[in-house]
Amino acid sequence: MSFNIRLAENKDISSLTELMHDYIVGFYQNPWPGTPEIHKLIEQLLEKQNGIQFIVEKEQQLIGFATLYFTISTMKAARITLMNDFFVLEPYRDTEVEEELFLTCRTYTQEQGFAHMFWITAPQNKRAQHFFAKMDAVQGNWMNYSIV
Q1: 64 close to 98: Cβ distance less than 8 angstroms
Q2: What is the pLDDT of residues 90-142, one digit of tens each?
Q3: What are phi and psi of 126, to 5 degrees?
Q4: Could you tell me the CATH number of the domain that includes residue 117?
Q5: In angstroms, rounded to a whole number, what is the distance separating the alpha carbons of residues 80 and 73?
Q6: pTM of this prediction exceeds 0.85
Q7: Which domain holds residue 82?
Q8: Locate the N-acetyltransferase domain: which residues (predicted)?
Q9: Would you say the C-alpha torsion 42, 133, 59, 110 has a positive or negative sign?
Q10: What is the pLDDT of residues 25-36, one digit of tens each?
C-alpha cells in the first residue's frame, strides 16, 4: 500500500477540515465546532508553536491525521507531547497506515527531545486500546476529568 505521512500544509486546510469533520461528528458523534473555528485551529497548528498535525495522504486524498500539542509535565520537569487526535478512515484501521502514523508521532516526540508522548481515549473505544497496547503503550493510572 502506497501512502505518505507528512506535516500538514496550507494546501491541506480544506481536505483536513473534511477529515476532522469525519472524526469529530462521524466517529465521536460530537457537535461540529464550526468550519471557521476548525480553520483557525489548523492555521495555529501550521505555525508549529503550540503543536503540529501530521496527515496521511494516499493518491492525493487525506486518509488520516494526528495532532500533537506541546505542553510541560511538572512530574517530569520537561516538555511533553499530547497526542490529542489520532484518526484514520475505517478502511485503513488495523493496517500499516495506522501503525506508521503512530510511529511518526512517537519518533517526532523522541527526536525533538520531548520527555514522552501521552494521550487519552474513550473507555468504550476497545479497538483503539488494543491498538495502543500492540504499539507497546502502557495504560496510566490517572483519572481524567473535564468541565463542560
Answers
A1: yes
A2: 999 999 999 999 999 999 999 999 999 999 888 888 888 888 888 888 888 88
A3: -65, -35
A4: 3.40.630.30
A5: 6
A6: yes
A7: 4-134
A8: 11-148
A9: positive
A10: 999 999 999 999
